[in-house]
Amino acid sequence: FFSSCMSYVVTAQKPTSVSGAITGNFTSPTDKNLVISKSTRFEIHNQTPEGLQPFLDVGVYGRICSMHFFRPTEEEKDLLFIATEEHKFCVLGYDSNTGEIVTRANGNISDRTGRPTEYAQMAIIDPHNRMIILHLYVGILHIVPMNPVTGELSEAFSIRIEEIHVLDVKFLEGFELPTVAILHQVPDKNETRIVNTYTIQQEEKDHKADVWARKKVESGASTLIPIPNPYNGYVVLGETSIIYVNGSKETALSMEAACIVAYGKVDPDGSRYLIGDLCGEIYVLLLQHNANSVSGLKLERLGTSACPSTLTYLDDGVVFAGSLRGDSHLIRLRTEPNEQGSFLELLDSFTNLGPIVDFAVVDLERQGQGQVVTCSGAFKDGSLRVIRNGIGINEQATIELPGVKGVWSLSEDGEFDKYLVVSFVGQTRILAITDEVMDEISFPGLDAASQTLSCCNIINNRIVQVTEKEVRILSCGDFNVIESWQAPGDSAINIAAVNQSQVVLSLGSGKLVYLDVQDKLTEVTTTTMEHEVACIDIHPLGTATRSNFCAVGLWTDISLRVLSLPDMKELNKEILGGEFLPRSVLFTTFEHGDYLLCALGDGHLFSFQFAQDTHALHDRKKVSLGTKPIILNSFTSNDARNVFAASDRPTVIYSNSKKILYSNVNLKEVDYMCSFNAKAFPDSLAIIGEDNLTIGTIDGIQKLHIRTIPLGEMPRRITHHEPSHSFAVLTVHATNEREEGYLRVMDDQTFELADSFQLNENEGGFAIDTLVMDDNKEYVIVGTVIPEPGDAQVYKGRILVFALDSNTRKLNLLAEKTLEGGIFSLKSYDGKLIAGINGTVSLFQLQENEVTELASCGGSILALHLATRGNICAVGDLMRSVSVLHWNEGAREFREIARDYSPNWMTALEIMDDDTFIGGESFFNIFTVAKNSSSESEEERSQLECTGEFHLGESVNKLRHGSLVMKSQEPDAKQITTTLFATVSGSIGVIASLSESEFTFFEQVQRNINNVIKGVGGFEHSDWRSFKNDKRVRPSKGFIDGDLVESFLDLSAHKKREVVEGLNVTVAELVKRIEDLSQALH
Asked: Among 328, 876, 983, 1034, which residue has the fewest nearby CB atoms (within 10 Å)?
């Protein structure tokens, strides 16, 4: 029994939108760090000649609004100041010895009587480290005094200011006392904007106004840039002008209208700044000067990037351009323009899914695994993103090749692979790659009339081939046989393991032979195991070229043995248990240690950490990777060793953050694989599966694979049309003059545009779904909004019904209906369609290509979200939370049966089961409400009861049923109901329904973890997850924080033991329960 009222929330994709970035020396005095803020997280990167190298990814119990580096006199490294939207702040340092973030100070500036600022919260640090100023509430500056030598903070005090609508505040240099400039808007009809300057008098806890004369600036002014010594003063960035002010001196520059959204200092003296606008245009602002005085301004266009939220100059002409609305970029400033006239050179790109405004969950590859297709980005940076759990193989070449029993790559010169040795029953063939052409050839010394069991390059420019009867050594020069070793008597070789200088063979009946091929082919040792041998491996560990160990899997007792080389003495024995034989075994070294992997015939995989000194196997774990036998092979990607598990559910096994991770591969079935680094196909894999040989490159090894389809316009809504295998997408194409709305049809595999339908002038598509009628035809239905210019209320919209040809993918408009209100939401509803028309929800039917209204129900302010299940419809209102409507077919009655009377401003809605509904609201919370169906009281049945509340810290734009993982086919595997959510910051999460016993258990785990570890910055987890809006704060209930629970896996052994106290489970048992749940969800 799983309850929708007991939920487990976990992040599958962390936030990707970049809100800020700063540089400094945080991790050491010599490290050049780039720190990037992404909503509730910050990332620390090291600047290296090879690019940005990720160093730490840190979660914060708060939404980061400001970040600054500062360095008190006594410090060797920079300290990091962070302020959050929850009116808290902290000062962080980095302990190089422990590798941990250390909280140096923290504080809470919350003021229940204060009115929060309507514009962005701001925090600034005095250039001489004398104080921190925070602007969080209207008419108030909070001052936190600081000791400039030690960095120690004193008790904060507040100063009242006359400015109500503060747009920006910055410290100015060149003054003896701390001095700030404040850009604000005067509350008049002209929207006048003025810059005031104040000196902060710390001892008097007051301020002195008008250090410089008040400066009136253009009404589009939004940003202040403080200019450092020796020039001092400030620059005001407007929409049509840029002004430099230093006391009574000023100089101005006119420019074409632009909405400036980011700037970054290039030179320490402030003589050059990078500026970026909403369209992604990047400029350099030059302060022309004579001696120490600014004489003029000059603005030069450099080129186009994604719309930046931050422009951070790193070094040597390299800039990090972070973005909230598109991918972030690492760019180099060129001294000469390229062919397109741009002075920007793209060095690297960082995927950003945000903002995600809608998504669909579809099994595109028909493998039983859901993929999420998101509407991401804004304006010209709009795109579709295809997100799936796993790793993609990008096919370079495919040929039909049935009956293969093994494949190995060979090199001719030691640098690039040139040949593929392919084994069949009773024969071996050689495929040669020359200039992307594959031809079959022969080697004079290779036994082509036998099945090859193993083949590889060995030292001294030679090749080894193992067949059932012999081991042959060939020269790489002429490919003739140099020497060979025959199986004795009537024996036959049935299993072979080889590396660059060693060979171990199984001759049946448990007999093993060890051959050394370092100098010449020599039989060294033989031994007989107590049972028949099932599999062997002698891969060297670490950076060694020879192996000191041999792993052997045995029949009968289903065991794994570790033997020493060269004497083949047994060092360790591990009984695997069960009924299925070990089919493949592999030694490998991941980033944090040596491992021995053993795969069984039923698709299960055992992993053990292996200690070379004691020969011990420990940390035994078992996972299911499929249902058929697994063949293991190692390969290298991005200089990291990984393992490919070939089976009916092929998987890449890799290591990250000292954990073994498993990612599915986008192939249906793989029998064999090998690395193939050919000149024509560098860093590729050769894969045998489904009677084909495929050569392909592998995507970056990561948990989620993200494919980008750039649109050049903003996608707003998406639905999948199964009969035509296509997506229908509502988009907004922005030009300089206006915005145009379109319905686009795209192939669901190639995403090629198949058809388009342009909406009317000023008409925007706000809702889309598919409608299946009684004739089983599936139509595309669209809801539009037609606003009148200058009118806040929408009085007109249309419902459009399209037929979509399953062959040509062409649209045909069958029916349209104009209504008195905007259609903000639209869903199919048991062969009918239901629409949110302003504050009314109406039910329609499609008959004879005509849309007719059946019934309607009012009571909403703005029905933004609809969700349907059976004969009920849930409505998410702009500001009146959730209501439930019921359609009585017999009585032809459509009425409200229940409502949540909380004043939640809804951002997303979904129905979890017949009685439970989940929603996201505008204060970054999610919550669940339930019907009291069993109550005898009509009043109680009409009220939705709040069963769960949780502060997510992210703004949820969409909730939808679905899963990112392939559902297990095992009969005893528990199936967990999941709902996916997507957010403005680009994060994707999973909400799972737990049983009561599981919820109680993980709730205790959550409490124990909170007792053992504290949040970064000293922020409390319980405070962070409490449901909070502008009216109230209540403790979280009905939800488990899965991110916190999964953090247990990263704790030290000592802290893990502390957490399990009182749980009645061992550390190993808790690790397994958390890992099993994690793999079932994301």
From this structure: 1034
Identify the pLDDT of residue 966: 65
Q: Is the dihedral of CA 97, 100, 101, 105 positive or negative?
A: negative
Residue whose entry in the numeric block shows the structure tokens 């840190």: 58
Instruction: Give the C-alpha separation, 808 to 715, whole Å.
Output: 23
* C-alpha span between 81 and 71 (Å, rounded): 10
* Dist CA 33 CA 44 (whole Å): 6
Q: How many CA atoms lie within 13 A of 485 on its CB side?
A: 19
Distance CA 1048, CA 13 (A): 18
Answer left, alpha or beta for residue 317, where phi above 0 means left and psi between -120 and 50 means alpha. left
Angstrom CA distances, 471 to 2, 20, 454, 514, 664, stand at 58, 62, 9, 12, 36
DSSP for 172-198 reads: ESS-SS-EEEEEEE-SSTT--EEEEEE
Q: Using the Cα atoms of residue 789, residue 791, residue 795 and residue 800 in order, give the sign of their dihedral.
A: positive
* 275-279-285 Cα angle (round to 5): 15
Predicted pLDDT at 768: 96
Query: Which residues of the chain, if any, have pLDDT below 70?
Result: 1-4, 365-368, 436, 638, 657-658, 700-703, 966-974
Distance in angstroms (rounded) separating the CA atoms of residues 454 and 1071: 38
- 716-739 per-residue burial string, b: 16 or more CB within 10 A, e: under 16: bbbbbbeebebbbbbbbbbeeeee
Which amino acid belongs to residue 663?
A: S
Residue identified by tokens 């040792």 is 525
- Of 60, 22, 30, 55, give the one whose Cα is nearest residue 42: 60
Distance CA 794, CA 826 (A): 16
Q: CA–CA separation, 745 vs 750, rounded Å? A: 12
pLDDT tens-digit map of 707-717: 899 999 999 99
What is the radius of gyration, based on Cα positions, of the chain? 33
Per residue in 880-900, pLDDT (tens digit) is 999 999 988 877 888 889 999
Give the per-residue pLDDT at 93.
Answer: 95
Q: What is the pLDDT of residue 999?
A: 93
Pairing of strands 356-362, 797-804: unpaired
Q: Where are the beta strands (DSSP E) in 805-939?
A: 811-819, 823-829, 832-837, 840-847, 850-857, 863-869, 872-877, 882-888, 893-899, 906-911, 916-921, 925-930
What angle is formed at CA 137 by the lines to CA 132 and CA 141, rounded to 5 degrees? 35
- What is the token pair recorded at 475? 């020269």
* Residues in Cβ contact with 252 at an 8 Å cutoff, skipping those fewer than 6 apart: 241, 242, 243, 244, 297
How many residues are there in the chain?
A: 1082
For residue 418 the two structure tokens come to 């040139």
Within 10 angstroms of residue 863's Cβ, the number of other Cβ atoms is 30
Cα(631)–Cα(649) distance, integer angstroms: 11
CA 347, chain centre distance (Å): 21
pTM for the complete prediction? Answer: 0.83
As given in the structure block, the two tokens for residue 969 are 């086919």
Reported as half-sphere exposure (CB side, CA atoms, 13 A), residue 586 has a value of 24
Residue type (1 letter), 412? E
pLDDT of residue 490: 86
What residue type is assigned to position 1042 of the chain? G
Q: What is the DSSP string of 1023-1067?
A: HHHSEE-SS-EE--BSEEEHHHHHGGGGS-HHHHHHHHTTTTS-H
Cα separations in angstroms, 110 against 36, 207, 387, 952, 1066: 25, 22, 39, 20, 42
Got the DSSP string for 130-169?
A: SEEEEEEETTEEEEEEB-TTT--B---EEEE-S-SEEEEE
Residues 433-437: contacts with CB under 8 Å, at least 24 apart: 433/678, 433/679, 433/680, 433/681, 434/680, 435/680, 436/397, 436/680, 436/681
Nearest to 665 by CA among 676, 654, 680: 654
Strand, coil or helix: 1070: helix
